[in-house]
Amino acid sequence: MKTLYLLAIAIGSSMAAQTITFNGCHNLFDNQNFVFTKTTVDAYNKNIYITTPIDGQPCGGLGTCEFKIQWNNALTRWEFLADEGNGTFTTPSLIYYNSTGNNGSSRPPSNTFGTWVENTVKTGGQCGGNLSTTNSTLTGDLHSSPLGTSEVSKSKIQIFPNPVSDVIRISGIDNGHTIQIFNVDGRLIRTDAFDQKIDVSNLSAGVYVLKITTKSFESHEFKFVKK
Question: What span is annotated as the signal peptide, if there is one (predicted)?
Fold first, then answer.
């Protein structure tokens, strides 16, 4: 990639892979979607996402674009990186970064949580400023609040009892697909097919996050306490 700048993302998740899709910064990347796929987890249990295909796609007359979203533990922030054009990310350029309240999740934040700051040193200010819902789409395997716990989700779906000793019950959902349980550090503890009753008796006492993914790839997350 001869010139490096930012893109817009939209994410969707499935059993096969977790993806993020970005659409934005049209001055540099045109009005097109870039799809990121989770490739691995780093040493800090943070997911790493890379665009597919890794060797790039046409990008606004700038050659090809390869992008990566990953956690920078030294600077405690999520970063949106552009490759030098070889698909190796040996000397990538920083396009956006988000360092607001994101170190509790294994997934990067949405464009409504914290601030994805445009690195104008690389973009020349052509991306229209920090990411927002008016200049970009960023959807998929993201979180939108601390620990990914959404008050909107809570209004639609209930989990009880909380705190819980043995079994969590779920109400208000009829198209559940999978459930995942994460500890407060964002590490995945369990993945199971959806059930309205979840046996958590073997979990150690503490705080966890329950993620429910639907058959339409929506996700809802709840914090619960295991007694």
Answer: 1-16
